[in-house]
Amino acid sequence: MSESNDSNQKYTQKTKLILGVSVPVFIMGLVSFFTDVSSEMIQSILPLFIIDIVPRNPAFYLGLIAGVTTALSNILKGVSGWMSDKINKRKPFVVAGYTVSNLSKPFIGFSPSWEYVLGLKATDRFGKGLRTSSRDTLISFYAIKKGKAFGIHRAMDTFGAVIGSLLASLFLFWAWNYSKIIFFSIFPGICAIVLIFLIKDVDPTKLDETKLKYYGEPKVDKIDKNFIKLIVILGVIEFASLDIVFLQIRSIDFIFSGLIFLIPLFYLLTNIIYMIFSPITGSISDKVGRKPVIISGLSILLISCIILAFPIESSLFSIVIIIIIYAMYGFYLASVDPISRAYIADLAGKNKRGRAYGYYYLSVGLISLVESLLFGFIYGAFSFTWAFLYTATLLLIFIIVFTITDFSKILKKE
Predict the structure, then answer these.
(1) Distance from the CA of 209 to the CA of which of 4, 166, 188, 346 falls in 20 to 30 A?
(2) What is the tens place of the pLDDT at every residue in 332-356?
(3) Is residue 318 one of the residues assigned to a domain?
(4) Cβ contact 291:402 at 8 Å
(5) How many domains in the chain?
């Protein structure tokens, strides 16, 4: 009888939910929350910091920094995802990744030139590359409903971005300089490092009966050619994306001089919309499928790029327009980012998820380097009009390709 009670107590503990997700998923959400407070405190002002130290053609250097660091991050996600499956351990990659990122990026504020920013940003993205595939794999293992788990995780992550952006705006309003704001980001970063040690690793080949109730029997799954095609298509969508740094520098044209502190607030709005809609789009995708949600997000970004391509003079009307665009961008992120990750978990077997996420991020990394460099070059060498029309054209093409592609034969029934 006592043994039965112990078993029931163990079962209850392992299935305890917070915000509808398991405790480990919630803790990883907290880690992402503090990391994003740190990251977005920097990111919300980084384009302004770059303009300050590189006044000539900042769009090109922003594209270079964004392209190189994003590529490094995603390529490393591919390598680390494969390695985590190979050694069947995820936590070491997650701990190392969060530690490297949160202890390096605050020193960006002391950079005298764009080269130093590139180096420190690359170190930060190196840490992100180490952790992301393994973290997403852990979330998929601990998830009861993958769409909701990834949605809640992204919502918590984005709530951190909301707080980080708000703090940056307040600090700018209080006349803090960029360097001081960026270095202050080290404090929430340390909180994230402490919390990540609370997460336990998962071996999918040794799941106990409680986990099996939710995760199902582990299977030895192969990643076939059809799955690789999906990975490439999802990665190519990244080529038609828009890095928010370009939205930030474009938004300078929409506001009056002297209101530069509004840009972190616009960035804050994007993160609020992302935070609100991530769990909603995640739950909707669990019911109606991933593809319709992703297509809706890409369509919203297409409309935004068309609007941004037109010249505009600073006025109250232009401020309203840019506010709407930042809100649309937030919805685009909420509809594409977490849903793509849940899609990967749907289409890959449990024992290959680390490798599946790795292939996905490797594809995104190789493609995003060219995407950011091309956009930054077109923006600087020609005009913002040509740059945004270029992205809008790519988006239209890829929406059509994604819509007509049938992924039903690739789905793994779990």
Answers:
(1) 346
(2) 988 887 777 777 766 665 555 566 6
(3) yes
(4) yes
(5) 1
